[in-house]
Design goal:
344 residues, alpha+beta, 2 domains, four-stranded antiparallel beta sheet, two-stranded parallel sheet, 14 helices, 12 strands
Length: 344
């Protein structure tokens, strides 16, 4: 949490409203608030167990949009043509939501301290539990409903990696974290094993966060440890070379090079995250067990994956992001993994 903001606003907050009654239950009879305090949000974020948040305006500096367009024009989005739509709206939320006055950016830790079994196929850590889109979205929606109890005029819209929003850029602007050279947001004292979500509100806040200084320095471990060279320049990912992209997003068959690049990654890739010194220092097991309640699947042998039927696939990955891969692409990835293992 932004401790400085919380401490600074504490006295202001208690002049506005007492957060609990004598029994510790939230009071719902507060006055309408012209400007919201970060302390109010902090209370509800804590109730939901979300790791951190920060707040910024609903529009970005033009440099972010310019860079995003450069990235698109360079073809680094590969076949993800949907990313080319609404480029300007992604950085100025008032285009789509004229009522927007603020954006709260949330970061929820999904890390679990579990070593991988090197004799099994690899699945990205973010897919070790229930679908994060739904888990985090429910939390943010509950925060919105609680805010509405304080001020009936509050309106908002929540997104978790689904709306046309440059979430990472808003996270940077809010001071939630800085961008690592692998384009992942690094949250102080948390790391980059986080899911991002946003809540767009029609209310202004007493104050907003500011970008914080990058602490990556001269470190290039994430760049050096990417086996495909997908980090083509600092902060720039070429999805055409990214294991996460072609193991998840690519719809067509693999090229021979992509097949080799896949190695033993069945879904996604964590190599740049695993090499980050800040993750090694800060990453701790999340308090949200929904993010890693399916880790038993990591122990499946190659033969067990090979024998998995389409019906079993659907049941195993019910309410899990892996399911969006669909069975045929799962088989595509699996056969490439097996081929790579046999050719070692």
């Amino acid at each position: 949490m932004n401790k400085n903001n919380r401490l600074k606003n504490k006295s202001v907050f208690h002049k506005i409203i007492d957060i609990t009654d004598n029994q510790g239950e939230t009071q719902l009879n507060s006055p309408q608030l012209n400007n919201l305090s970060t302390v109010i949000v902090d209370k509800f974020v804590r109730l939901e167990g979300i790791k951190d948040f920060a707040i910024t305006k609903p529009y970005l500096n033009s440099k972010y949009i310019e860079y995003y367009k450069y990235w698109l024009n360079s073809g680094f989005n590969s076949s993800m043509q949907w990313m080319e739509k609404n480029a300007d709206e992604r950085g100025n939320l008032q285009i789509r939501f004229p009522w927007a006055r603020s954006v709260i950016v949330f970061a929820d830790n999904y890390y679990v301290d579990k070593s991988r079994n090197e004799n099994t196929l690899k699945i990205s850590r973010y897919a070790w539990g229930d679908d994060y889109h739904k888990v985090l979205l429910k939390k943010i929606k509950r925060i919105l409903e609680n805010l509405k109890q304080y001020d009936k005029t509050i309106e908002g819209k929540a997104y978790v990696d689904t709306g046309p929003i440059l979430e990472k850029c808003f996270a940077i602007e809010s001071g939630l974290g800085w961008m690592g050279k692998n384009s992942q947001i690094i949250i102080p004292n948390v790391g980059s094993y986080v899911f991002l979500g946003v809540l767009i509100l029609n209310k202004e806040f007493e104050e907003y966060g500011n970008p914080i200084e990058s602490r990556c320095g001269d470190c290039t471990k994430c760049v050096d440890n990417c086996p495909t060279g997908a980090i083509v320049e600092n902060y720039t990912i070429d999805c055409n070379k990214c294991i996460s992209y072609f193991s998840i997003e690519k719809k067509d068959d693999f090229t021979p090079q992509e097949e080799k690049w896949l190695r033993d990654w069945l879904y996604g890739c964590d190599m740049c995250l695993e090499s980050c010194p800040w993750n090694k220092k800060w990453a701790k097991t999340s308090g949200e067990i929904s993010y890693f309640n399916r880790i038993e699947m990591l122990e499946r042998s190659v033969n067990e994956w090979k024998d998995l039927t389409e019906e079993e696939f659907g049941k195993l990955f019910q309410k899990n992001v892996f399911k969006r891969l669909k069975y045929q692409r799962f088989r595509r990835n699996l056969l490439a993994n097996i081929k790579n293992i046999e050719n070692k």
